[in-house]
Every structure is written in C-alpha cells, then in structure tokens.
Amino acid sequence: MNVLAIDTSNQVLGVAISKDDEIKAEYTANIKRNHSIGLMPAIDHIMKETETTPDQLDRIVIAKGPGSYTGVRIGLATAKTMAWTLSIPIVAVSSLELLAHNVRQQNILISPFFDARRGLVYTGLYENNHDRIFIKKEDQNIKMDQWLEELKSLQQPVVFLSQDIKLHQVIIKEKLGQAASIPSVIDHLPRPGILALLGAQKSPESVHELTPNYIRMVEAEANWLKEQENKQHG
Amino acid sequence: MGEFMSEYILGIETSCDETAAAIIKDGKEIISNVVASQIESHKRFGGVVPEIASRHHVEQMTMVLEETFHQAGLEMKDIDAVAVTEGPGLVGALLVGVNAAKGLAYAHQKPLIGVHHIAGHIYANRLEKEFSFPLLALVVSGGHTELILMKEHGAFEIIGETRDDAAGEAYDKVARTLNLAYPGGPKIDQLAHEGKTSIDFPRAWLEECSFDFSFSGLKSAVINTLHNANQKGETIKQEDVAASFQASVVDVLTEKTYQAARQYGVKQVIVAGGVAANKGLRSVMQTKFQSEKEMELLFPPLSLCTDNAAMIAAAGSIAFQQGHRASWDLNANPSLSIEKYATR
Ligand SMILES: [Zn+2]
C-alpha cells in the first residue's frame, strides 16, 4: 500500500510516503512560511524520489489539527481534493496524537501541546502502553496553568512535547517539578513518516464530511450565540 | 489530432463567500456551473466573516466539484487545465481554492493556471459574446470600481479606479444606515424603483479628464441627511433616499464610462461585477449608449454577475491559450493587481 501523508497543521511542514510498513521518503521543514508555497513542491519532490505516480497512491493521511486554522485548511483542501479525485481513502489523525508518538518510553503519560496565545494551549493527554498510544483526555483548548493543575492531581510522570516548549517550560517545571519530563529537541518535531504509518492502521473517513479539528468556534459565531442566549433569558 | 478536439477548462473560485466550480468548453460555452452560496450563514453577522467563509469553503469544496463533474458528465481526464482564482480576495478563502486546484491538477498531472478575479468578471461576458478590441470594462462590485481598457486578450490597463470606497461598498453602507438586511445592494435597487429622486446628493466628478471615482463623500452625505432629518423629527421616505442615492452613483458611473469609451474609441463596453446586476445602472447606461452605433454595450446575464467559477474558467482559457502556467508553489495573493497579473 502506497500512502501519502501530509501535515501542515502548525509551523512544521511535513510530507511522507510509505510503502507497506516502510517509510520511503520524508520531508520536513521547520520554517515560518506559508504552507501553500511549500506543500505541493514537497509532495512532488518525494513522489519523484520514490518513483511514485499519483495514480499509484492507495491512501492519503492528513493531520487534521488542532493548530493554525489556515495551515490545517491548506492541508485538508489539498488532501481532500486529491483523495476525492483519485477515489482513494482518506484518513485523518489528530496533530497532537501524531506528536505523542514521538515518545518511545513505555507506560508513561504524554502531553503534546501547541501554544494558542494568551496563556492557552491546544493539548490532550495520551499514554504509551505496550507500544501503542492511547488517549486519556481528549484534545482541547485550555489555559496552560489549569491544564497543569489537572495533570498534577494525577500524581504521575508526564512527558511534554511541543515546538513551543520554550514558552511554557518554566511554568511546567514550577507546577509539576520532578513529575514533568522534557525530552531533547529532536522529540518535539512531528514526523510525517510516523503519520503515514499511523494512517495506514486507522479507518478512513468520508471525504466530503471530513473537516479540520479547529476545537475553537469562530469568535463572531460564539458572540452571536451568546447574544441569542441573552435575548432568550433577558 | 489535438487541433480538432475541444478544450475543457475547470474553474475554481473561492475568493469571498461563494464556493464555486465550473467546466467550460473552448473558452465560451458553459458545460456546468455550480455555486454554493454562504449568504445565509453570514447574514446574521451583517457581512462576510472571513474565518467562517474559509471554513465553509473546506466543507463544500469536494461536494461542489463532484456536482460540477456530475452535471458535465465529464471526468478529470477530459480536462485540459485547472484554472483558479489566485487573488484578489480574502486570503483564507482564496487559499482553499488554490490548494484544491493544485490537488486536482497534481493528481492528474494537468496544467495549473492562476486567474485574477476581476479578469474573471470581465471574461464572464465572453460566455455570451465574442470580444472585439479595443474594449472598455466597467467593473463594479463590493470591492471594486474600475475602468479597464483591453487592447487584446489578456491585456488589462486600469484607466480609472475608485480613490476611496467601491460602489458596492457604498451601497452596503447606505443599506446598513437604512436598516436593510444584508446584502443590501439589491434591496436599494429595488427600493429606488419605488421612490423619487427628490434629494440632490453630490456627484464626485473629480478633476476634468480623470476617470477615477470617489463614493465616500456621497455615502457621508446620505448618512448626514438621514441623521439631520432624524434629529429634526422629520421622516424621509426610504424609497426616495434609495432612488436619489442610486441616481448619483449611476450618473457618475455612466458618464465616466461614456467619456472614456469615446476617448479610447472602443468597440465594446462591458459592465462586470455584482453591481452589473443593478437594474437602474443597466437602464441608464442603455439609454446613454443608444445613439453610439459603433459601440456595443454588453451586460453579463444576471447569473454571471455575482461570483462564479465559469468566469474564472473563461479567463483561464485565454491564459491557457497564451501559454501561462502556474507552478506548484502557486500561492493566494489577496491584493493581486490586475496590471501586474497582465504582465506576469
Ligand atoms: Zn467578484
């Protein structure tokens, strides 16, 4: 099975091709740039490297967020259209779950996160158990200090993974002390090759119905809903 | 065998709040044309919310494409090139179309063509009638008021443009002041026909010989008139305000277009963009150009005035014929200028 994996959900741009259980090519760029410029040339590059033609693809895997709204949409617009037009299955994987797979340690809690400004993060809680990653708390948008309180109450060691680790490591250490572990820089980078292998195992979704996982509602919409509620009760 | 085969271009348009795809044949014939409008979704906010527009585009895109191919009875293998609006427009909205177009073109190794949104509005007319040059286009919409001179296919020269608000923007703002529901432009046109042009609103002619426009003074005059009347406890009929406002806009648009058309000796005058659907503008322009036997005045059919992808495919067809090809790093350009596009 030839799998094309795409991750444009955050600053890191990742694409990979796997054949059966092997990663054949991976491209990762960790630079501030519009993914619309870099994505298709990167796909073209690894397709050529692996001598894969689009019609030989059997599946497309996409990191569906959370992350940058625009970034996630660039990936989804590309992946959905390709999967639809090639009539092949599309698989969506949480961008946080993907990052969680960077931890190889057994039986440990993992908190991958992306900074969401104003003290907020996108995060979820995962656990590596017998080489499989299980979700313990679903992906959410939460104040980092509140999240750390929740983790503290679990009284278990937690690994933190993020490209934005520098922004939060002081407060992590402050709140969790010895229970918090922050691995070396290599583990904070999401790997598109892992995304490809992961997507090969998961069940596909309906291509028309697949949407990004923004987690957050559009502000204008949230305000509007609040207004309607006030009208009803006021 | 190639030269006897028909050319099919797929167009994609997502620059604002319509998710659209279309297939046209030989640059002039619509085979299928699908538009998923989001008006209902934005209505409650009184205008387009960019983030909501972008989200809808992602949700709708593949369904709109499926419907487009279904209606046409064609497949991607029949398509010669994929044309997409690269700008101007809302960046997040444009990006969905651009990346969907790249996905399609790449998957089938077809040429990719970036199209300027306004070039699309102008080329909507070619789906009705072949162009004859030189040609003058009056482009009027919520975001644009421009006079564009075309000496040949693909060549666009701006000879006049708005210095402040676009005509459509002035319509929307006046509509809001009159508490008309979004989108207010068509509603003003409707009210104008029931009212009298009893208020003498200003007309900005600017310097002599200038083909530029200005609508902010007019907009302020309307708002002030309503405000003053309100303070004095007088009521002005909404219909009369609409009629007087529209008369002022239409007067300036018609007169400047007419002067420019004569100065450049054009063979055709094309009115394009959302405001081209305005009945008041259509009738005044028709009267003005009636005696000009050497000049042909063209309006697109109502269905092609608002944003659609058939017009993008039509402009894309010419770009394709002229050998323009976008590379895989094509990006959305929210402020793409038409002159820069013409000399790409
Ligand atoms: Zn438009």
TrEMBL record, chain A:
Cross-referenced Pfam families: TsaD (PF00814)
SUPFAM superfamilies assigned: Actin-like ATPase domain
Domain of life: Bacteria
InterPro entries: ATPase_NBD, Gcp-like_dom, T6A_TsaB
Residue span, Gcp-like domain: 31-198
Any one GO biological process: tRNA threonylcarbamoyladenosine modification
One CC-aspect GO term: cytosol
Protein name, UniProt field: tRNA threonylcarbamoyladenosine biosynthesis protein TsaB
Native source organism of the sequence: Gracilibacillus kekensis
UniProt lineage: Bacteria, Bacillati, Bacillota, Bacilli, Bacillales
Automatic annotation (TrEMBL), chain B:
Biological-process GO terms, alphabetical: tRNA threonylcarbamoyladenosine modification
Transmembrane segments: none
Full protein name: tRNA N6-adenosine threonylcarbamoyltransferase
PANTHER family: TRNA N6-ADENOSINE THREONYLCARBAMOYLTRANSFERASE, TRNA N6-ADENOSINE THREONYLCARBAMOYLTRANSFERASE, MITOCHONDRIAL
PROSITE patterns to which the protein is assigned, alphabetical: GLYCOPROTEASE (PS01016)
SUPFAM superfamilies in UniProt: Actin-like ATPase domain
Keyword line: Acyltransferase, Cytoplasm, Iron, Metal-binding, Transferase, tRNA processing
